[in-house]
């Protein structure tokens, strides 16, 4: 480019510098545009896949978190219920048996159900 | 020709194309790459000294431009934005290599007519200049390339290099001084 200006000045440093650098400014690259557009297309598809992958991973993490939290809630509730039931039952049995111990009528009784039946049945 | 029929200025055309690229228009993308790649590769080649690396980096510049198309605001010229991305990639390339390129450039483009002595002398002098520029420290080389080769004003060079204008002026002054030293044999009075 600028062929008419391509003369060695031999004395004008700035002119020679400009000519030397400007001559390397526009570098033809055959096929570059198509290669670049293809590379951009590949990058676009890769980013789309990454976005989908990221969405799926996030959704899976959410489901897992909900599942774990729910499971942990059930466990603790069940444990508490078991403990309560056990303590209540033992106290109840102990009370009943203790009360029953004072009744000579029920002394041989071992089964708590028979104790309860004995207590609520006025005929016994 | 009426004013309505005049082609839009380059900057306006770039803005229009970028808006189309942001909306997914591949034809606009192709046109944008076609408009800017020659000069971009020329700048990168002057920076890194290799045609292959320059094309790879230019490809990456356009990929990044495409990613940013939706967020791009036309506050600066697109050419300045492209050179800014390119400059950052050049810095990354130097870090990756662990040093700045100080080797001579690939063989330069052929001039029109080598049969004349004057053309041969021009070629030799041009090559001497390009090799001398390649020997400059990084900031000085970038600043002189953007000023002389890309014909950018100081303010745009400062924006590209993320430096004050005063620093840009200092780098350019030092670059000229250093180039005069390196090329003094071509200018000594015989």
Polypeptide structure, described:
The complex is a heterodimer of chains A (124) and B (190). With 124 residues, chain A is mainly α. Helix content of chain A is 72%, strand content 0%. Chain A contains 3 helices and no strands. The longest helix of chain A is centred in the middle third of the chain and has 70 residues, at 32-101. Chain A starts with 12 loop residues before the first helix and ends with a helix. With 190 residues, chain B is mainly alpha-helical. Chain B has 2 domains: 1-101, Rna Polymerase Sigma Factor, Chain: A (Orthogonal Bundle), CATH 1.10.1740.10; 112-190, Orthogonal Bundle (Arc Repressor Mutant, subunit A). Chain B is 70% helix and 0% strand. Chain B has 9 helices and no strands. Chain B has helices spanning 10-22, 26-48, 51-67, 78-97, 117-134, 138-149, 154-161, 165-182, 184-187. In chain B, helix 3 (51-67) crosses helix 4, helix 4 (78-97) packs across helix 7 and helix 7 (154-161) packs across helix 8. Chain B is globular. The model of chain B has no long low-confidence stretch (mean pLDDT 85). Chain A binds chain B through residues 3, 6-8, 10-11, 13, 16-29, 32-37, 39-41, 43-44, 47, and chain B through 26, 29-30, 33-34, 37-39, 41-43, 45-46, 51, 54-55, 58-59, 62-63, 66-67, 105, 108-109, 111-112, 118-119, 121-122, 125-130, 133, 144-145, 148-150, 176, 179-180, 183, 186-187.
What's the quick description here?
The complex is a heterodimer of chains A (124) and B (190). Chain A is mainly α. Chain A is built from three helices and no strands.
Return the CATH architecture of the largest domain in chain B: Orthogonal Bundle
Overall mean confidence score, pLDDT of chain B? 85
End-to-end gap of chain A: 124 Å
Considering the protein shown, what is the CATH homologous superfamily of the largest domain in chain B? RNA polymerase sigma factor, region 2, helix turn helix motif
Largest sheet of chain B: none
Unreliable residue stretches of chain A: 1-7
Q: Which spans of chain B of ≥5 residues are poorly predicted at pLDDT below 50?
A: none
Coarse shape of chain A: rod-shaped
- The helix content of chain A, as a percent range, equals over 70%
**Percent range of helical residues of chain B:** over 70%
Q: Measure the end-to-end span of chain B.
A: 56 Å
Strand content of chain B: under 5%
Report mean pLDDT of chain A, rounded to a whole number: 72
SSE order of chain A, one letter for each helix or strand: HHH
SSE string of chain B, helices as H and strands as E: HHHHHHHHH
Report the major sheet of chain A.
Answer: none
